[in-house]
Specification:
With 323 residues, the protein is an alpha+beta fold. It is 26% helix and 20% strand.
Length: 323
């Protein structure tokens, strides 16, 4: 059987904040004690998996497109200044699941192909350069106009498991060797996004780390995403879907699923989720701000003044980068 035990976030000091499958915080643990570790957990939404309302099902042959939202644009390798030769690197999101047994390559590939066919951002590229019509400030950083915006383009069948899956055979039978292998790859992919060329390659990849000398021993599934298409909720639910599909394939002895995942639409951007379809933050007018919205923003600003909201409550007591 394939078992997924815990979810969590890998901290800079090597500790892990662990979560149950419902996102409930648990104690701080070391990465070697967890079945799932992650980094950069909550910034965007990559599939209908994490949306509260069902996403409409679409025809399998439909090419889907959506302009990236402002937050998604920040995750791309992107030119912010006027020098076309200077680009900020992409932001990466990495998640790892430890399975209690190792699936066959055939089973894993079949499960990956199923989820890729269902979720369009798992087989898409980005078209458009996102460059403005003009830069209107002294430092040429403020943009005006966007004639060729960065756009998600998903064409059914453009990618498959052959384009995203790598098999890493680890020498030996010791679990510590397996952990060393996936943890090194985890830290590598946090900072190095060279594996992804957003114009031509998938925006994610998977590595199966398995022990060569252990028959049916544990393995690690290491997921790396361009952060424009992922948050940890999405990655966790994607992992659960892949594991569930593999379990059904093992149980029934066939890759023909009873209820294969249905083809979904590209999910809304954060702006569209808040403001409505086809709207961005630049469309916001004064009438869009209710007293409740103003109160919420003011409250968050006060929170930020007290301390960085993304850090644990006990951070100011010492430790970490600030001593």
């Amino acid at each position: 059987s394939l078992v997924l035990v815990l979810l969590g976030t890998l901290n800079d000091d090597g500790s892990v904040t662990a979560f149950t499958s419902h996102g409930t915080p648990r104690s701080l643990l070391h990465p070697s004690q967890l079945s799932v570790a992650s980094k950069n957990p909550v910034l965007d939404f990559f599939s209908s998996l994490q949306q509260q309302s069902p996403t409409p099902v679409v025809e399998k042959s439909v090419v889907q497109k959506r302009v990236l939202g402002s937050q998604e644009n920040l995750m791309l390798p992107r030119q912010y200044g006027p020098n076309p030769n200077v680009k900020f690197p992409q932001m990466n999101h990495v998640s790892c699941a430890i399975l209690s047994s190792t699936p066959t390559e055939r089973t894993l590939r079949a499960a990956l192909d199923q989820v890729m066919q269902a979720h369009p951002l798992l087989q898409c590229t980005v078209e458009g350069d996102g460059e403005p019509e003009e830069r209107i400030d002294l430092f040429q950083m403020v943009r005006k106009g966007e004639p060729n915006p960065c756009t998600f383009v998903s064409r059914p069948g453009m990618f498959s498991s052959k384009d995203v899956l790598s098999i890493i055979d680890v020498d030996g039978t010791d679990r510590s060797r397996l952990d060393k292998s996936w943890q090194e790859a985890f830290h590598r992919d946090l900072d190095d996004g060279s594996w992804c060329q957003v114009e031509t390659t998938p925006l994610w990849k998977v590595e199966l780390h398995r022990l060569k000398g252990a028959k049916n021993g544990p393995c690690a599934l290491l997921f790396s995403f361009n952060h424009a298409i992922s948050d940890q909720s999405s990655a966790s639910k994607l992992t659960d879907q892949i594991v569930s599909i593999m379990a059904e394939i093992d149980q029934r002895g066939t890759t023909a699923l009873r209820n294969p995942p249905k083809k979904q639409q590209i999910p809304l951007s954060v702006e569209e989720s808040v403001l409505g379809k086809q709207r961005t933050f630049q469309d916001v007018q004064i009438q869009d701000f209710s007293p409740g919205t103003v109160q919420y923003i003011a409250g968050k600003a006060l929170e930020e003044a007290k301390g960085p909201v993304i850090l644990p409550d006990g951070f100011s007591q010492g430790g970490g980068a600030l001593g």
